[in-house]
Amino acid sequence: MKSEKLDAHAIGSASAAIFGFWFILCAAALYLFQSPTMMLGQNMFHGVSLQPAVFSIAGVLLGLVAWLVLSYASGYGFANLYNRWAK
Questions:
Q1: Using one digit for the tens of pLDDT, what is the confidence trace for 17-66?
Q2: Are 63 and 27 a contacting pair, CB within 8 Å?
Q3: What DSSP string runs through 10-24?
Q4: The pTM is what?
Q5: CA 40 from centroid of its chain's CA atoms
Q6: Which residues contact 14 (CB under 8 A, 6 or more apart)?
Q7: Does a structural domain hold residue 31?
């Protein structure tokens, strides 16, 4: 049975949109509720000791761009690998 190919650009874009949403939500949580968000972050990263956050718009934008690029590349790579291996 032949599988349907995935559109790598669409998967990459969808992945970037979802990760961008989560990044903005996380940044808002950090800004509004710093202590609980830092505790959650420590628990999510296996107890890594996090320093109190220095919140800046420039930092948030830089982090957002990094996550958008990384998540797009991950989605694009996933779709390409899927298309190769699903033959």
A1: 999 999 999 999 999 999 999 888 888 888 788 788 788 999 999 999 99
A2: yes
A3: HHHHHHHHHHHHHHH
A4: 0.82
A5: 16
A6: 75
A7: yes
Tell the burial category of 86 from Cβ atoms under 10 Å away from its Cβ (0-12, 13-18, 19+). exposed
Q: Give the whole-angstrom CA distance, residue 79 versus residue 26.
A: 27
Domain range for 80 is 8-85
Total number of domains in the chain: 1
Residue 42 lies in a domain: yes
Domain assignment present for 62 = yes
Q: Give the span between the Cα atoms of 66 and 7, in whole angstroms.
A: 22
Angle at 34 between CA 22 and CA 48, to 5 degrees: 80
Q: Report if residue 2 sits inside a domain.
A: no
Angstrom distance (rounded) from CA 5 to CA 25: 32
